[in-house]
Amino acid sequence: MNHKMKGILGAVLSFSILLVGCSSPTVNTNSTEDNKLNIVATTTMLADLSTVIGGERVTVDGLMGPGIDPHLYQASAGDVSLMQQADVVVYNGLHLEGKMGEIFENLSGQGAAVICIEEGLDESKLLAWEDDSSVHDPHIWFDVSLWEAAAKTVADGLSQADPDGKSGYEANLDAYLKELEETDTYIRNRAAELPEKQRVLVTAHDAFQYFGKAYGFEVRGLQGISTDAEAGTADVSDLANFIVERQIKAIFVESSVPPKTIEALQAAVKAKGFDVAIGGELYSDSLGDEDSGAGTYLLTVKANIDTIVDALK
Amino acid sequence: MSPQIEIQIIAVVVAVACALPGVFLVLRKMSMMSDSITHTILLGIVLAFFVTHDLSSPLLIVGAALMGVVTVWLTEMLSRTRLLAKDAAIGVVFPLLFSIAIILITRYAGSVHLDTDSVLLGELAFAPFDRMVIGSVDIGAKAIYTTGILLLINLAAIIIFFKELKAATFDPMLAAVLGFSPALVHYGLMTLVSLTTVGAFQAVGSVLVVAFMIGPPVTAYLLTDDLKRMLIVSGIIGAVNGILGYQAAAILDVSIAGSMAVVTGQVFLLVFVFAPRRGLISSLLRRRKQKMEFAKMTLLFHLYNHAGSDEEASECGVDTIPAQLHWDSAYTVKMIRFLERDGYVQLLDGLAKLTEEGRNASIRNYNALFAG
Predict the structure, then answer these.
(1) Is the ipTM reported for this complex over the cut 0.95?
(2) Could you give the number of structural domains in chain B?
(3) CATH assignment of A188-312, among 3.30.70.20, 3.40.50.1980, 3.40.50.1010, 3.40.190.10
């Protein structure tokens, strides 16, 4: 072996020592010291739901923070340890998490319980992509009745993962279902304040289809479902015509999508001699942060309907 | 094995697997090919989706790989015409294919969550949770095996065809004379690049593919001229970047891929500044030294020209040289002192006089510069 090869081998060797030496010695104990169930949820909505249903018996970590577009989520090194120590993983499904979803499915074989919201949903209630029924719109959370189904799925999943806590989870579920029911009524009442013709919701991307279907709003989005595709010029111009024609008072910005496109739409409408206001910011792919006063699912959907109705009145 | 260690193993394997074909990309001035492929595979995914209508079909990955090959072949074909430069060929093919994909999505699949990330994992943090299970035995993360196979293919191809690759990269004429087609070698290499990009994309995501494929080879290029050594050094640098990047990500709790890409950039910067021969500092030093050598030579010529002549007093005085050569006097004094130390010049009554050695040196310089 010549000198050069020895040098290389030495480098490789000292490197493998570094590799082993530096990695944190976390052991997969699958439970923390206080014996709480570790739940990892993907979106902020699911983290909130898991906290409500799990109550005292669980600790919940969300992977995606407030204001993060799930399509653009980047995992950090800390997320790896979270996943590793998770007893239960809660995810949305319907391809919202992209390829990550498949990984969560596989996790069930590795000691963690996996709760997939998609599985608890009635397929007939899902909105399909045009004529292909195998691909669905994943933004199910703004139809409160679908969220009730999600709450049941989480409660069932937690009861299976932690049978001792079953009664607690079911009590939490019952209480929460009542709150969801009230919220649903609240949204319907607020929506009813608008004449039917004015119930038109124009936003940046199509995250509100379920909301529209449930509460009688016509929803027009600028982008498609994936936030990767940019709005085309024809989209902007068509939508501007639509707004002028229907005399729509306000259009909306979304928390996890940059406001540029919707501002461009506003300018396009103005060029046609009609003034449309920007009605405010809607929470779409994530809940608000704690300071915003919309840190929970219930507060967020209420904030959204208030913003919408107040601006369109 | 803990996920943390598996992530580092995957990173090292991918880094080395990418660095090997990356060396040839850098040498052939086609670095951005990797960036091009990470974008154009979207078209392959979209087309495959129109066939299968299923976002989780493995055919989508096949489509991606095929489109990668189409991309490199189209680019190679364009640049072979010699009507446009290699980088221009990349710049034509990549936006064309990518925008066709975007148009198809907006036109026909507007409401499907169809993008590269939904088909290829592209997230190193989750790679360890995608397990390889044979029978019912868990034998490690899937990405370790897929990228490991990629590494073996690249290693084998480069070892077996080393001579051909070397000749085709540096001297295509010679390659043709030796009896193998440089075009064939290039197409083969580019196919390898395409497979590596798609395979590595699946494990580590697009930014890191580009960083791993280009960063280590350009860094190694600053350290060595020898192709074999450049391949080895690239591999080692890639592996170091991967592990350092992971450690930084763990400490700061940030995106792993992002952190590795940043480390790749920083290591390049470090080598760029401090490399022994090609680094910024050593070239600055070399330039300064050359400037001084040149000044000394100029002064010697000047003194030689005027030695013993009538105007020696006005031309060769320590206080008159600055005006003659347009130097400032401190610089002049410094140069005279250097020449004194070399034994080429003596000071007599404020006049700089050449010694015998100085005369000889001046003649030598003249011959070296003008006679040869």
Answers:
(1) no
(2) 2
(3) 3.40.50.1980
